[in-house]
Amino acid sequence: MSETHSSDATDHGRSRGSRRPFSDPKLWSLCLGGTAIIVLSGLVQLSFGAYSMSIPQAWRALFDPTVIFDYRWLLNFFLGEGMLETLTGYEVSQLPELSTETHIVWDLRLPRVIVAILVGMSLAISGAIFQAVTRNELASPFILGVSSGAGLMVLVVLTVFSGLTTFLPLVAAAGGAGAFLLVYLIAWNNGTSPVRLVLAGVIVGTVCGSFQTALFVFTDDIGVVQQAISWLNGSLSGVGWQEVRMALPWTTVSVGLAYLSSRQLDVLLLGEGTASALGMSVERVRFGLSGLAVLAAASSIAVAGIVSFVGLIVPHIVRNVVGSDHKKLMIGCLFVGPALMVSADVGARLALNPVQIPVGIVTGLIGGPYFLYLMRKKQQLGEL
Known about the structure:
- Helices cover 75% and strands 0% of the residues.
- It is mainly α.
């Protein structure tokens, strides 16, 4: 009786903790630390470039009342000139003139920071879901072939069907979903194991990479080839408000659904037998959550290209601090993912100034050694 009571009390305590994730001081510390990194790195991004300004100047430009207190400028940035004219009847030329610093910050540099934040959120959430669905701590969109499949489809659009660029998030989602299904089919043998999933992801990624190379061979437009190469290495160079408007809705939907699915993710970690005993339709839930993870990854791939390892290392960093409760994990990923992406983009942009390197190279240099560390640390990788 006492053991049963103790178990019930423990489960009840976990349930209460799950319902109130922000009661955890470790989560608060993680969120505040991530926010500080985002703010500091973002201010560095806003300050330095061909037109340099001090950090106080960048701060004042960011909070320029001409923009902050004029909804027309905000509509122009976040919804576009067409929506501005439709909703208000104003054209951009009729709006109050902006100072040089404000124009540079809001028109040129701030969108890059916002896209980095959205990409960091999406990849971190996607990685956390994949690790729970597969019960494999080495799983991520990059390792499981999702990034390669989405990348191939987006590359096809860029090089062959340029008229479909408006639908890049959907195209990337379709490519990522197809690649992930193929990985599962290859790895399936009366079930899957962590090693088979990883190896299947390597196989699918290699095949997709071969098709990508073939597209380069048959593409005559050097500009398209250069754009595609930059995109395949993960780059935030040249992104603007159009990319913000493209990624924001998909990221918002993915983040919201991922948080609402936290309980299902917790149950999946208990194993298929326990999850089924609790009344869960395991295969249906797994399929739906995998689709959500693909959508989250695709929304980032469509605007920033293939940024490696973020979806792998961020969930581990958060999990080491707050534990495996997925409500806390999802909230932590929303701060640590952007912190990693924004700070990595600072390195990509300023390390070899004036030359900008793809941000995917920086995250790869960080994530590669961490991936090796995980492989050495993990005692049991599963059986082939």
